[in-house]
Please model this.
Amino acid sequence: MRSDFTPVPEIEQTWARVTDWLNAHAPRTAATLYRPAPPQVIDEAQERMGTALPPELWTLLTLSGLDTPGDEYGLDGFYVNGHDYLGIHVIERWHAWRWAIQEDNPDLDPAYPFWRKEWIPIAAATSDYFFGHFLDGRTGEIGRWGHASSTDEGVYPSLAAFLGETADHMEAVSSGHADGCGAVRDGRLVWN
Model:
């Protein structure tokens, strides 16, 4: 097990904003969130992926990251910045899939790879696998990938900023300032 793991307060606080809002406004969505992932499960996945998961991601996964080992997709019904939130087993599976593509088709220019070992998927469009966000284990920044487009690094400065934007959108729903992009229906948060 990773002995140097210390929870990151900024992630704990940002995730608390998300869960507090869901519990108050969309309890049926709150009930679908992943359970905390045990450190041993995270550590084993990290070893299989062959890359260190940053403390920010460890913190998030220990708060809500235990999906079912056979899950094919992310958490249906809870979205972070337009994509399904991924649990540890789906993170591992998607990382292996994207890394296998990189290894099978090495890039001509290593400065612009299809995928880096240190890029860890955290949210994705599970309907087609072609769009998503990743945490760059080298920098702590959030990047994104898309179908038939280049990978963008540094889209968000941190995991806390990425999650914070989701919390901001949720708070806009309850304050009436969501401009039609989201609503709560029958206890569920629904994005349009």
The longest strand covers residues 75-80. The mean pLDDT is 88.
